[in-house]
């Protein structure tokens, strides 16, 4: 069932910030990590997303070693004003050093990284600029201070952080308002619910869950087994052969609820997330990643689906049973 008759709800991006579609689009897989991409279909997916009310498009400077930002440039040029772009700095890997996974949050790195991102994206201002990961070698105040200067200079509109601890979010927010916190959140990864989500609600920070479909694992029992051998996810513990049967038993629960409602497992996983955000009173814009229009339509429709209390109870215990740590 793909109910597209109901408009995608809207959510504030940070307290007092712009009103955006309550679902964004993760663009990472269009350029790296998830196997070959049909470029024409990926481009059509971007256009369809905007038609359906999706306004936040998520990338990072390291996705495809810059290629993902460059891929978005044409779409952004055609849709400036309607489409907001979120990108990230922090990983230092480049086309010359693709295996260098070290981090830098030094102000001089941030100042150079933003110029490269602006150029690749072909925009004058980045709508949302995230610290991709905390580099503990640099005091947080120095990095956030450098990010705030980018706002003053008009290079960036709003600031975001990814995967930080509660005290880091509080400290950063006191230096400059943090509009968004991007962290993993799904039926399989619920650690942000205890402290981070209530803190985000208190501070008026919008949560932007990444991998809301468990990197695809939550979409069907066959998902991991069907991946090509070069897919980066096969290196992740949750996709490891010894954990697949255990995790598939959990996905079977999601599929059973989906079947009872005539929806898909992916929609069930997303509807659960929207329900949890409502229960926690936090503004949320998940960014499921897809390169296909049919899946995008399915995911967008999930923003207005409702699960019963019995469904929520049945799904409540899954995360504790997941095999393999999250990475
Ligand atoms: N801040 C960070 O550290 C961080 C880390 C990871 C990701 N991210 C961001 O978050 C975004 C989303 O995360 P993710 O892509 O890793 O994981 P995800 O959204 O949980 O899952 C994406 C996977 O699910 C598949 N999929 C999507 N919708 C589907 C549907 N309705 N039915 C069946 N399969 C479906 C996609 O395949 P197809 O593409 O083939 O449709 C893709 O393989 C990324 O694109 C990226 O922008 C951020």
Task: Write structural notes for this entry.
By secondary structure, the protein is an alpha/beta fold. The protein has one domain (10-220, 279-305): TIM Barrel (Alpha-Beta Barrel). Helices cover 38% and strands 13% of the residues. The protein contains ten helices and nine strands. The strands form two sheets. The protein has a seven-stranded parallel beta sheet, with helices on one face. It has a two-stranded antiparallel sheet with strand order 1-2. Helix 2 links the parallel strand 4 (56-58) and strand 5. Helix 3 crosses helix 4 (140-152) and helix 4 crosses helix 5. The longest helix is centred in the C-terminal third of the chain and has 21 residues, at 241-261. The chain is globular and about 55 Å long. It starts with 9 loop residues before the first strand and ends in an 11-residue tail after the last helix. The model has no long low-confidence stretch (mean pLDDT 96).
Keywords:
10 helices; TIM Barrel; globular; two-stranded antiparallel sheet; 327 residues; alpha/beta; 7-stranded parallel sheet; binds NADP nicotinamide-adenine-dinucleotide phosphate
- Strand content is 5-15%
Side-by-side strand order of the widest sheet: 3-4-5-6-7-8-9
Give the bound compounds.
Answer: NADP nicotinamide-adenine-dinucleotide phosphate
Helix and strand succession?
Answer: EEEHEHEHEHEHEHEHHHH
List the helices and strands and how they pair.
Elements: E1 10-12, E2 19-21, E3 25-26, H1 39-51, E4 56-58, H2 67-78, E5 84-89, H3 107-121, E6 126-131, H4 140-152, E7 156-162, H5 166-175, E8 178-184, H6 196-203, E9 206-210, H7 241-261, H8 265-280, H9 293-301, H10 309-316
Parallel strand pairs: 3-4, 4-5, 5-6, 6-7, 7-8, 8-9
Antiparallel strand pairs: 1-2
Helix pairs in contact: 1-9, 2-3, 3-4, 4-5, 5-6, 7-8
The protein binds NADP nicotinamide-adenine-dinucleotide phosphate.
NADP nicotinamide-adenine-dinucleotide phosphate is lined by residues 26-29, 34, 58, 162, 182, 210-216, 219, 266, 287-292, 295, 298-299.
